[in-house]
What we know:
The structure is a single chain. By secondary structure, this protein is α/β, with parallel strands linked by helices. The chain has helices at residues 14-27, 32-39, 45-58, 60-67, 79-93, 165-173, 180-193, 205-212, 235-250; strands at 97-102, 116-119, 122-124, 132-134, 137-138, 149-156, 199-202, 221-227, 258-266, 269-277, 281-288, 295-297.
Amino acid sequence: MLRGHEDDPAESALALRLMGAVNRLVLEGAAPELADLYADDGRDPHATWDAFAKLIAGRVEQVRQLVTRPVQTNEVGRCAALLPGFLAVAGTTGLPLRLLELGSSAGLNLRWDRYSYEAAGFSWGSPESPLTIAFELDGEPPSADAVTVAQRWGCDPSPLDPATEEGRLTLLTYVWPDQRRRVERTLAAIEAARATPVRVDRAGASEWIDERLAEASPGVATVVFHSIVMQYLSAEERGAVESRLREAGARATAAAPLAWLRLEPAGGVADLRLTVWPGGKEARLGAAGYHGDPVHLRR
């Protein structure tokens, strides 16, 4: 089934694509036996493996086609980790935020301010939101000041529309069925997305960000952000993104500041880092789990 993928680059996440291909068949109703096992909290791993292997053996060509699809993990739990960075930029600059996201998928994280957040000693957002992200917070809670978002814009090589059944199905494909909390968060974020349209362009990261930052945007703080995205880009593309951000940062002013917020792998955790121009000061705000929870802020 995987013949021909021997030379796939590591960043293409072949293992995730295989598991997602099978999970998509389950979600489409094409694998009722495996679906029952996936839905059973006390499932027998041996029985699950037997059903998994049986499904693959019976649908080799179909799975081969699905494996070619790129991973689309629009994990909204990461918004809990990104939130302190957004609040820091808004608090420091005193300006509305212009959001530019790399690797947006369906743009669910571009709508981070439409969600509610709850942790020990901290809450933020509207309690009327269909999505409340409850998370473990270690460290001093961030400021809970209000934030104004002036613009939401993202890019992705294969953008999704969460309002369509195809978009919904693809978003759920890479959320593993035993992680019920993630499934519920994704469904709630899809519901919230209907009330807040965003634009996600079909484009690569470096060229897109170069165009977005070509001219200054006075009166707003531009925040370029991404979460668990860089591993899917080539080394050349990663270098180009950083180079173009630093070039644009050199042109930033107090009236048109630029911030680079990222949550990216650093061993067993994901590092939360923020660079703000003018000045180019970089800070490690803390770390988080790969799905956003728990969040450890620097004391």
